[in-house]
Amino acid sequence: MSEDTPVDWEQARALAYEAGRRAAGPTELISLPDADGRTLAEPLRALTDLPAFPTSSIDGWATRGPQPWHPVGRVLAGGIAPPLDEAGTCVEIATGAMVPPGADALLRIEESTRDAAGLVSGVPRATPEWRIPGEEAHRGEELLPAGTAIDPAVIGVAATCGYEALSVRPRPRAALLVFGDELLTAGTPGAGRVRDSLGPQVPGWLRRYGATVDAAAVTGPVQDTLEAHLAAVRTALTGADLVCTTGGTMHGPVDHLHPTLAKLGAEYLVNTAAVRPGFPMLLARIPDADGRPRFLAGLPGNPQSAIIALFTLVAPLLAGLQGRPMPELPLVEAATDVPGRGNFTHLVLARLDRSGRSATPVGHVGSAMLRGLSNAQGFLVIRPGTRATAGDLVPFLPLPLTPGERP
Ligand SMILES: Nc1nc2c(c(=O)[nH]1)N[C@H]1C(S)=C(S)[C@@H](COP(=O)(O)OP(=O)(O)OC[C@H]3O[C@@H](n4cnc5c(N)ncnc54)[C@H](O)[C@@H]3O)O[C@H]1N2
Ligand code: MOO
Q: CA-to-CA distance for 140 and 124, rounded, in angstroms?
């Protein structure tokens, strides 16, 4: 990759994803309760038929032959039902209990009567009141493919199938270095100083994309010297698969990122993306003697640009590292006309309507601003050489929000 050659935005995403996929970590086993948020490294297959045995859906009677039925026993959930051998007999049965071999109908308790001699009568419903083995899944059937994000429902179905642990990809470990001597870490901005808005924000986004970020892995502001940058990046790389830096991506007097990468022998995968805001972003691979792949994502200093770089390069990289598919972008309707940005992709912060199908650009979206980001659900993607007219379908890059955020 020649230096500072802007890469098309879609291609930048694809390059980051492929780099992550090639560097995906070795699989590991994780117990079910700890698996939330991980990624299946292998397909989830049913270990038995589901249900594994004919299972009563009701409390009542399992009967054989014509009524009235003479009760000969009881079977509870968890028990092994002996066969019902004789016509005219029944057993009392509980919901979840195994239906005895030989039974041909189940009768609800509230739809049954007993005579003075204790014989049971009633009309079983036409639709079967028990679940047939294999009705939900057959033994060996693939329920979910490798690459599936594990959520509580996936954990639940794995438990149903008989798993105690799942084969998953490791969580990528991320670190963050904030560059900029002008940054304050407390108090109100003024007198040439601004608050660091990325140090407190970026770890949350990284975690939402599946990375771990220890408190000790967030450092800054790192002093604006080449020596301090180099030392900070070297230290961060020892414990992280991915180091994100903020600021210093350009070639100003105190922008030391490129010289730092040169000293580390880094290989650029993306060195600026043709996108506005956010274009000075970069992604590099850093060689190391132990062969473990390590990445550095250079996020620009302007805060909205930094977050766009994170969504453009870091999100696909982390998806690849975790063995997940490349996130596809849904199409939404632009609610208003949206201008393009010439040869650059234009990312436009926007809010979805209640249907989620139409997006309206929000205000306060300068690359140095965060107000628009905090009020939007994602970005309309206006591709190079195009503009959107109200009603056009355009790709939408969603923020990784959780339900309840931006209601
Ligand atoms: N001659 C040119 N100058 C600039 C260009 C250009 O094309 N030619 N592009 C501008 C664009 S666009 C961006 S984006 C920035 C990227 O520059 P850097 O990545 O080197 O960022 P810095 O110079 O360090 O900072 C830029 C800006 O952002 C503020 N900042 C930095 N870090 C933080 C933080 N953690 N929290 C809040 N604000 C932060 C910093 O104070 C500056 O105002 O370059 C432009 N210049
Ligand atoms: O592209 Mo800059 O990243 O617009 O702020």
A: 34
